[in-house]
Amino acid sequence: MARSAELLQGTLDLLILRTLELRSLHGVGIADRIEQVTHGVFIVGPGSLFPALHRLAERGWIEGQWGELENGRRAKFYALTAPGRAQLSKEKRNWRKVFTAMNQALGEES
Q1: Please, which residues have CB within 8 angstroms of residue 14's CB and are 6 or more apart in sequence?
Q2: Which of 29, 31, 63, 91 has a CB 3.0–4.6 Å from the CB of 44, allowing a cystine?
């Protein structure tokens, strides 16, 4: 079984913002979606996820609202804000630059 990869600093924020671009989700839903779209390469535990959600909320990029899960339990659902959408666009541009630079440094094609 393959081991999950380490996330670069700031990458988790980008993954969370991208995940919430499509729809509001609760914390476990966000972690599950990241694992799903990365085919298990990134597995985000609560010790990383919840501090990141708190940090993004403090910056005004996401907002949380209490709701109810299908099983009747309460959970906080997070949504991307307008400033969060702007930040996501900025982060995507930055990531493309990093990706291109790393491929060039490693002698790979972009």
Answers
A1: 88, 91, 92, 95
A2: 31
Q: Which residues neighbour 70 within 8 Å (Cβ) at sequence distance 6 or greater?
A: none
Instruction: Give CA torsion, residues 33, 36, 41, 43, to 10 deg.
Output: 40
Buried b (16+ CB within 10 A) or exposed e, 10-38: eebbbbbbbbbeeebbbbebbbebbeeee
Q: How far apart are CA 89 and CA 86, in angstroms?
A: 5
The answer to pTM > 0.90 is no
- Tell me how far apart the alpha carbons of residues 7 and 16 are, in angstroms, rounded to a whole number: 12
β-pairing, 62-68 with 25-26? Answer: unpaired
- Element of type H or E holding 36: helix 27-37
11-102: CATH, from 1.20.81.30, 3.30.530.20, 1.10.10.10, 2.60.40.420:
1.10.10.10
Q: What distance lies between CA 29 and its chain's CA centroid? A: 11
